[in-house]
Amino acid sequence: MPLVMSIRSRFRAGAVTAALALAFLPAGQASAADVNNAKNAGFESGLSNWTCSAGSGTTVTSPVHGGTTALKATPAGQDNARCAQTVAVKPNSTYTLSAWVQGGYTYLGVTGTGTTDVSTWTPDSAAWKQLSTTFTTGAATTSVTVYTHGWYGQAAYYADDVSVYGPDGGGGTDPSPTIPGAPAGLAVSGTTSSSVSLAWNTVSGATGYNVYRDGTKVTAVTGTSATVTGLTASTSYSFQVTATNAAGESPKSAAVTGTTNTPTGPGPALPKHAVTGYWQNFNNGATVQKLADVQSQYDIIAVAFADATSTPGAVTFNLDSAGLGGYTVDQFKADVRAKQAAGKKVIVSVGGERGTVAVNDAASATNFANSVHSLMQTYGFDGVDIDLENGLNATYMTQALRSLSSKAGSSLIITMAPQTIDMQSTSNSYFQTALNIKDILTVVNMQYYNSGSMLGCDGKVYSQGSVDFLTALACIQLEGGLAPSQVGLGLPASPSGAGSGYVSPTVVNNALDCLAKGTNCGSFKPSRTYPDLRGAMTWSTNWDAAAGNAWSNAVGPHVHGLP
């Protein structure tokens, strides 16, 4: 889109200018007396020593790179969330400026050097990334201003472990780190036939962790989880973890044993083009159905919904037997098996308009994965649908779904049903999550309803209720990194199925043709076709039944007949 291109061009220009400036700086050598001259470099004392513009900065406990807190700064309006600190330095000296960053577009720079002020930057990042540059002070320079900032209209950024490393400027430094304590809470969070996933508690003052298998170091990570791969099936291994920082390495944690799975073959594949329908586990005026009543055109049946529990991140499933005319759990389980015997996939959906499930840290991610896997074992579900309409943390939902995948294996079905606003940019959390799990993701069925006007991939504004709205918005996902087989069109089955955005099955089919074959387009026509487009989704099988199955009878055969 033009806005994105403009932003990136301005970033590139700044980066090139900084790079050219650095090329002419005199080389500096670190000495034994070099220190980190930044104060409160890890934000362990809140925003002490730092000043953030327009109240844009705060400290958070997650995500963090090292220690227990990090900076979170949020651009708003004409403010780019600049957080700065004045640092004492020595004249005629060379320093290395660095910081670990995550989230939206992030700048790191320095002014007042007395020579050439420099900066560096990174586009949005879902994981911690280190920014680093160097600068030289002038003959009369005794202090500089180091800063971080984001970019206008972009997502919040996080920063941690800032360093201005070089000769002691005399302004004082943070206390030297001490060797951290041994990690506690080490546990096996998932297994496959060739890997074991581990998770443990954060250690105060740690900047990284080493993972040991049977006494031998096998990997180093900065977070509190790791997956050890390349293991032999049906084999037990002993694991320990240590915490590290600049002062050294902690003693090893207590050992845990992880046993790899016995290998199994993949489950039956979905058809190339599939129809997804939500089945209502409640009575809201639509036709009440047992699972056995779901129309045969639906290839993936999403059971709506799982319920949150008092344990953060964990979910459960409560069949509404009373609301569904005495439908029993045993009948439900038998119907799941019967649908699967007919080649269908039955998954449990988490969220919905009123869903309150929150996965915002490592513990809740583990709880989510464990609880969903337990539901799969109890009811026979083939996977999970993510329909969290009240916010999503890309880092920890990614962690949760990868943990679930390690438990469930290659036949796991993962679908997502974001709202239109969630998929306008790859920097949005939903889009980030989809890209993070692209190798295990089945399909994203965005909800093209209950939406305001949105931008298409051509930068033009489109209103819901037209072929162009469907095709121009789908184009963002298709050109933004998802495979065509991971993109579906989500629409209500009848006017009663949504507050707004209902279109006739003919409009749905025309949009499918436009994307898959380049025919029946509106004013927007994609630059290429996507014959592997997965298909369509509807809310709900119940509203479809209430309307005489008009949606599935028209859209189902059309989807299955795509090239």
Automatic annotation (TrEMBL):
Protein name according to UniProt: chitinase
Pfam families noted in UniProt: CBM_4_9 (PF02018), fn3 (PF00041), Glyco_hydro_18 (PF00704)
Keyword match Signal: yes
Biological process (GO), any one: polysaccharide catabolic process
SMART domains: FN3 (SM00060), Glyco_18 (SM00636)
Keywords: Carbohydrate metabolism, Glycosidase, Hydrolase, Polysaccharide degradation, Signal
Signal peptide coordinates: 1-32
InterPro entries: CenC_carb-bd, Chitinase_II/V-like_cat, FN3_dom, FN3_sf, Galactose-bd-like_sf, GH, Glyco_hydro18_cat, Glyco_hydro_18_chit_AS
Record-linked Gene3D superfamilies: Galactose-binding domain-like, Glycosidases, Immunoglobulins
Organism expressing this protein natively: Streptomyces cyaneochromogenes
Keyword Hydrolase in annotation: yes
Span of domain Fibronectin type-III: 182-263
SUPFAM superfamilies found in the cross-reference section: (Trans)glycosidases, Fibronectin type III, Galactose-binding domain-like
Entry similarity comment: Belongs to the glycosyl hydrolase 18 family. Chitinase class II subfamily.
GO terms assigned for molecular function: chitin binding; endochitinase activity
Location of the GH18 domain: 273-562
Enzyme nomenclature, EC number: 3.2.1.14
